[in-house]
């Protein structure tokens, strides 16, 4: 059995949150990344101040095949321009359609495991200006030309 990590702010594309979430009190257990967090743990060094925290964590190494079973990998945390400033051991298993990770609490607060979630496009909340259609401009020009013709013919 596994627990699910699915919040959007856990994605590597989400910027730092002043609350600086951390996994210092994470219960040692099997976890699956899902939903807006992504479908797997990030496996390349994320930018600092992302994943809703200050020190984002990632899986240093490739994800295993189903045949490899449970493998050990290093989970690294990016700080001070060092992609593996701090680390801890993680276990990974390929379950066919998804991966699960045996994660331990992060070494200290402001360190957090990140998912590979996609960038979420923010919707524009601005009011769209109503543009006049080409049809309006075309009919307005025709009316203007007809009016000018009437004026010219009457003089």
Overall description:
This protein is of the alpha/beta class and 155 residues long. The protein has a seven-stranded mixed β-sheet with strand order 1-2-6-5-4-3-7, with no helix packed on it. The radius of gyration is 27 Å and the shape is elongated. The chain has one helix and seven strands. The model is unreliable at 128-133 (pLDDT under 50). It has one helix spanning 134-154; strands at residues 3-5, 29-33, 55-60, 71-79, 82-94, 99-103, 111-113. It is 14% helix and 28% strand.
Topology:
Layout: E1 3-5, E2 29-33, E3 55-60, E4 71-79, E5 82-94, E6 99-103, E7 111-113, H1 134-154
Approximately how much beta-strand content do the residues carry? 25-35%
- Which consecutive residue ranges, at least 5 long each, have pLDDT under 50? 128-133
Based on secondary structure, the structural category is alpha/beta
Strand order of the largest sheet: 1-2-6-5-4-3-7
Give the mean pLDDT: 87
**For the terminal residues, how far apart are their CA atoms?**
92 Å
**Helical content class:** 10-25%
Please write the string of helix (H) and strand (E) elements: EEEEEEEH
Profile the largest sheet.
7 strands, mixed
- Principal-axes shape call: elongated
Keyword list:
14% helix; alpha/beta; single chain
